[in-house]
Write a structure and sequence with these properties.
Length: about 280
Amino acid sequence: MGFQIEMPDPPLVAAGGIGGPCVMFAVTPLRNALTYAAVDPKASFVSLYKKAFGARPFAGGHYMAIAACPGFLVLGPMFHIYNGLVDSSAAACVLTGVSESAILYGSETRNAQVAYNNSLKGTAANKAIAESAMQNVFKPLGPGIAVQATRNVIAMSGLRVFSEPCQRVIESVVPSISKDVKQVSGDFVACVGASILTAPVHQAYSFLATERYNDPKKAGSQMTAIGQYLKKQYLTESGRIKGTAARDIALRICYNATLYTMFGGLERTFVSFWPR
């Protein structure tokens, strides 16, 4: 007896292949703000967004938009295929997150490195990553790949695993809420929770892909480097949590919750209005 693979409906495929790249390109400034934050712990939330939405707000975004076509086909249709095969949303999230990294890692890392170089212009351009040393967008392996895959699994669990429980809680609190508002609210609340969990993970990945990758004196293992980076980024000398932690969580919420809530709403819209 073999597995029976049930192909997803056309609107799910269209949402992933057409809508996904549009959403991914649209949130480029929010993604770049996270990259800037990873290499500048002293910058404020507002100053990072001023930089992100200033000169070249969509710098490097086309790399992600191009890769987002197959990437969102994984996030959308492939998730439903995996879910049908393993009959578990959590396990399907793991498979989808790893598949997403295999497709999007090269483009996202290249995007981060372009944003990193852009942030150094006029200040320390000599520290920029050389064009020839940047990540190849077609290469699925490189600095921080395991960290990025872990982040993807956690991030996607908000929309695919925790949204429905959040919707049930919202409905129990506000019984009169409409179905559409309940779904969008559930998506957003779940994605906010996932964003909080992935904030330090994403910043660790950004650090590995940019600052540490470009450091000629880097030594020791990646795990040691991540530990040192997170300690420096989020803890004072006395061991207290810095305000940087709240800043990075807020930045991650703005990006991750916006990205997945937009995609979840777009996916439902395609399903609702697709010609029968």
